[in-house]
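User:
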Amino acid sequence: MEFDMVVVGPTASGKTGWAVSWALENDAEIISADSRQLYKYLDIGTGKPTLAEQEGVPHHLIDVLSPEESYSAGRFRRDCLDALSSIKSRGKKAVLVGGTGLYLRAVLEPFLDLPDEDEREKQNFYDQCEREPSEKLFSELGDLDPVRAAEIMPNDRVRITRALWIHQLTGMVPSVLFREKSLAPVKYHQIVGLLWSPGDLSGRISERIRKMIDRGWVREVRDLLSKGYTGEEAAFQSLGYPEIISVVKDGIDLDLAVSRIEIRTRQYAKRQRTWFRHLRDVQWTALR
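Assistant: Predicted structure:
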């Protein structure tokens, strides 16, 4: 059992449109690897496929969680494989599309099924690591687990931080866990990456966020809060939602909030591009 196509790329690179076109041409269904699109009710700010796109091509792992529910890479792997099996049972091709590196790693690389992760604790840990230079993080990993450190480039912050987080979460040496507990990666026939120049992607990010505002992102958040959600639920940690919540709850200027969202989104896209460079066999498609 394998994916017929995998589509990766940073946020705002056009993955959804590309995947939908391919799926329509190849009688395929889409599995989303997007940690934000899993949540119900958060539609505009997560950039979910339109209703027309979802009606034209069946999508899986979209709108499957309530806003208060947490999720893990291990659960994603299980749900993804269930969806893949279901698609194949109908004789259809399967497209995996998304930009959440943790979820893509869960199926495309040997995967360590870890205990459930507290997302806030994890984010705090990653934020702390973000403030440290790569040399210090790599040295810390070398002292902790020289075997795993020898497998990672000294400037590969993604894998270094991940290894340190695994130790924080389990109290065990990552290399031992990988050797004894890893699950085999899922095979794929082809993997395509959508590539924009940094300048072009930055412009697309700004345009995408402005369109979300025009479509009613603030209204969407206001309606959700009026239904009893506090804004502290797991779903609202999604990129951009804390800023929009500040507009609704605290009266923060919308233009200021948008500016902050643009900065955070560009930072996120940069981290995505860094991770995608480590994927093997990607056929990069330059866009403009």
